[in-house]
Design brief:
Length: about 350
């Protein structure tokens, strides 16, 4: 009596997922590319929640078997797909999973991984706030509230992902302050997308990046819409934070670019005492002129006192450029705590 040849039964992706949950070892009978395609079909059917559970489950299965590269492929694919479909909370969660498994897999800092981080970053939506709304209209106000709430979710999700990526870069072979490319990404997203703009945080990341011309454009844009008295503070803060890292070159590039864009875009740099001090400081630091440096601090003391952080930054600058030991440090390591707040930690 002839035996019937067993036939392969075709299962829907969701059914295969249920089977894999019962028999985890079956996951390794197919490649991660096949797995990714199966999950993609679930998402294409509109079942984004189901797809999310599959991305997380399959990614963790690969990681538990120490197959971190396959796990990273799944988390990367899932983050990009969910974000491309506007599923920001899901996409941000998978983006963070991607970074967490870079750490678990001891993946070193390098261009290939940086490209994948950039690919996820570019998938985070950028949606402008509706204009010309009638603030007396309940429907318009409801729309504005929903838009601002969604913007906050996007900014927090992207920020959490990129901060985790910066931390990974510092621990696995990147620059001491973290990847400058990732700092630039985070600074730009915070400025353009956050509904609660904090220029101190934006500055913190831009000065750890490597694009002072982009930062200059951001500052010029900010000067065109900020409240009076915020413009010169923002420029001075940027220059002093560059200098506190010993980065005179980018501080000069920043100021030169702001002046160029001031002429081309019709935005006026405020002619305040603080701006005079900032310009004189840049000239002074290009020579061995500690007495002149001290004279500037004394002459512009009132302008410097407009922001408490400035005195701390100037102490750091004196140490970096002239070897002067810090004197008036904030108590209890508050200087470091302020920078942690700026970084969003």
């Amino acid at each position: 009596m002839s035996r019937e040849r067993a036939r392969r039964v075709s299962l829907a992706p969701a059914e295969e997922f249920a089977l894999f949950r019962l028999f985890p070892a079956l996951i390794f009978h197919s490649s991660q590319l096949q797995t990714i395609e199966k999950i993609k079909k679930v998402a294409e059917e509109g079942n984004f929640y189901g797809a999310q559970q599959m991305y997380k489950s399959f990614g963790c299965r690969y990681a538990s078997a120490y197959r971190y590269l396959e796990a990273l492929d799944i988390f990367h694919s899932g983050a990009c797909l969910q974000l491309a479909n506007g599923q920001v909370t899901c996409g941000a969660e998978l983006a963070v999973c991607f970074v967490e498994h870079l750490v678990k897999g001891n993946i070193p800092y390098g261009d290939d991984t940086l490209d994948r981080i950039r690919q996820i970053y570019k998938k985070f939506p950028r949606i402008s706030v509706p204009q010309n709304l009638d603030l007396g209209d309940d429907v318009d106000m409801q729309q504005l509230a929903e838009t601002l709430g969604a913007a906050k979710t996007r900014a927090e999700g992207c920020s959490t992902f990129l901060r985790a990526a910066i931390k990974w870069s510092t621990e696995f072979g990147g620059p001491r302050n973290g990847s400058p490319e990732i700092h630039d990404m985070l600074a730009d997203y915070l400025y353009t997308e956050s509904p609660e703009l904090d220029m101190s945080r934006v500055t913190y990341h831009f000065v750890r990046g490597r694009n002072p011309k982009k930062f200059a454009s951001t500052l010029v844009n900010f000067m065109g819409k900020c409240y009076p008295g915020e413009d010169d503070l923002a420029v001075a803060r940027a220059v002093l934070m560059y200098l506190a890292q010993g980065n005179l070159r980018d501080a000069i590039v920043l100021m030169d670019e702001i002046k160029k864009q001031e002429q081309s875009q019709g935005v006026n740099i405020p002619q305040s005492d603080l701006m005079q001090f900032t310009s004189f400081l840049l000239e002074t630091l290009q020579r061995d002129a500690l007495p002149l440096f001290n004279m500037l601090l004394d002459r512009y003391r009132q302008s410097i006192s407009r922001e408490r952080l400035f005195n701390e930054l100037l102490d750091e600058i004196a140490e970096k450029f002239y070897g002067v030991q810090r004197r008036n440090s904030m108590p209890g390591g508050m200087f470091g705590e302020i920078f942690k707040m700026m970084a969003g930690e």
